[in-house]
Amino acid sequence: MTSKARDEGIERGGVGQGGAEHGGACGSMRDLSMRDVSVREAQQVVARRRGQALEQAIFAAALEQLVASGYARFSMEAVAAAAQTGKASLYRRWGSKEDLVLEALQCSLPLLGEAPDTGSLRGDLLAVVERLRAAMSSRTGCAARAVISELDHERAAAFMGLVQQRILAPAHGLLRAVLAAAEARGEIRPGAVTPTVLDVVPAMMMYRAKTGQGRFSEEEAVALVDEVLLPLLRG
Fold first, then answer.
1. Has residue 31 got a pLDDT over 70?
2. I want to staple 87 with a disulfide (CB 3.0 to 4.6 A). Which of 10, 67, 80, 148 is the partner?
């Protein structure tokens, strides 16, 4: 090609066209490069999710599977897949699904907090029952009930210990504090607080939840306080 032809080609935009073609190729290469970067970033995000972040992802996946499928169908493989980690990493820390479920529940059950002080026995009891109702209807509470309802007494022993430690004992503590304050105000009869009375709230709530499709409604909470607890305590 002569110098003149090259010049004419430049003037007609030949190089521009070639540049466009080259630019198109670069655009494709750039798109591929960007996709590669996105993949690498995603892989890095997964890789960086270690320690507490990975543990929380594993616990969340475990609770979700318990609520959706129950304890019998619970599998370490499904938890590992949902948490985007390897099954081997689960077994390195938890030797069995029972170990994993126990720790997931232990670390995820909500705290009940300090005893309420509304100034009245009825108000305090309603506040305590509402906290228990919220804990029971939480994802962790649903997961715990799913486990306990499926296991026989012997197999459920470890989980019942967890329920006693993290649910019943705190509930009894709140009720004792509320009833002690009410007794000091003269709102209940002396000697009304017994272990049986303390068991009435969690026992009734668990019974209603088990026979009412896992629900304990606000109306049932009010009825428990007004129709059972207050008459029992004021006698």
1. no
2. 80
User: How would you write the chain as a 3-class SS string?
Assistant: CCHHHHHHHHHCCHHHHHHHHHHHHHHHHHHHHHHHHHHHHHHHHHHHCCHHHHHHHHHHHHHHHHHHHCCCCCCHHHHHHHCCCCHHHHHHHCCCHHHHHHHHHHHHCCCCCCCCCCCCHHHHHHHHHHHHHHHHHCHHHHHHHHHHHHCCCCCCHHHHHHHHHHHHHHHHHHHHHHHHHHHHCCCCCCCCCCHHHHHHHHHHHHHHHHHCCCCCCHHHHHHHHHHHHHHHHHC
Length of the chain: 235
pLDDT at 42: 37
Query: Is the pLDDT confidence value at 58 over 60?
Result: yes
